[in-house]
Amino acid sequence: MAEENKQEQPVVPSQYNLDAKWDACLDLGLRRFTYFSLIGGFAGLLLFRSPMTRWASTAFGAGTGIGSAYTECSQKFGGYPGKSTASISETPITKAGED
C-alpha cells in the first residue's frame, strides 16, 4: 500500500529552484544597471562637455547593463538560442564579366 502512494504522486519542478533563478536575475539586473550607469556617467564626465551628451552616455551605459543582464538571465532560463549556424557557401562569387 505504501508503494502505491509513492507512484501516484506527480513530479512537479521545484518552486524553490525557480524562485532562486528569479532572485538571481533580479539581483544581476539591478547590479549591472547600477554599475554600467555609473561607468557611463563617469565616461560622460571625462569625454563630453554638454549635459545632454553626458546624460546620453549614462543612458547608454544603463541600456548596456540591462541588455547584458537580460542575455545572461535568458541563458539561465533556457530561452536564449545561442549563436545561429548560418551555412556559408564555399564556392566563390564571380562577377558577370569574369567568366
UniProtKB/TrEMBL annotation:
InterPro entries linked to this entry: Mic10
Key words, A-Z: Membrane, Mitochondrion, Mitochondrion inner membrane, Transmembrane, Transmembrane helix
Membrane topology: Single-pass membrane protein
Residue stretches spanning the membrane: 32-48
Protein location: Mitochondrion inner membrane
Pfam families tied to this protein: DUF543 (PF04418)
Predominant localisation class: mitochondrion
Role description: Component of the MICOS complex, a large protein complex of the mitochondrial inner membrane that plays crucial roles in the maintenance of crista junctions, inner membrane architecture, and formation of contact sites to the outer membrane.
Family recorded in the similarity comment: Belongs to the MICOS complex subunit Mic10 family.
Protein name: MICOS complex subunit Mic10
The species this protein was found in: Datura stramonium (Jimsonweed)
Taxonomic placement: Eukaryota, Viridiplantae, Streptophyta, Embryophyta, Tracheophyta
